[in-house]
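Q: For a teaching session next week I want to show students how multiple molecules come together into a single three-dimensional assembly. I've collected the sequence lines for a complex. Could you give me the predicted structure tokens for the whole thing so I can convert them for display?
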Amino acid sequence: NAGVTQTPKFQVLKTGQSMTLQCAQDMNHEYMSWYRQDPGMGLRLIHYSVGAGITDQGEVPNGYNVSRSTTEDFPLRLLSAAPSQTSVYFCASSYEGGPFRSYEQYFGPGTRLTVT
Amino acid sequence: KNEVEQSPQNLTAQEGEFITINCSYSVGISALHWLQQHPGGGIVSLFMLSSGKKKHGRLIATINIQEKHSSLHITASHPRDSAVYICAAHLTGSARQLTFGSGTQLTVLP
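A: Of course. Below is the structure for the complete assembly, covering every listed component.
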């Protein structure tokens, strides 16, 4: 199993540009999520999905869009990049335990994004 | 105030020392994770626990639900243990989402 894969590893964007960060997992996990990690702050949840066709917002969703057309893929779209979106982005997946049960999280290697 | 807090923020130890990293939380949780982030940036899950104690090799994680506190211990520390250790909790009522501590940077000197 490849686990959770993310592409690209590094990206530089100009303000106003759009792009999609790719995330895929081959473990048949229902739950997938996107986080951003900024210096001095813990990881913060951007969006998550509990299955194909179902997505929801996390703590910091503004400026980002997601969709989940398959179990395997969960892309994150930056609609119009801003310097405040400079961060390291992690995708994660796990089994979906519903609101009362949680499972081990598997993280992708991260995407380092710089917006100038 | 963050609902999940870690201490210390930075920790330097000599090889062989016993290390403790603490995590406290201010609200009810259903489970707590300990994660390790390598210098290269990758994050791996070390433990997930909702009660008691778990051990894996030289790593031990404990949780006291009543006291809202968890600890990660490393016995016989080694320079390869140098990493950022992160605790993250599933808060009651939002168990699908993780709330993260800000991490503890551990450096083990040879």
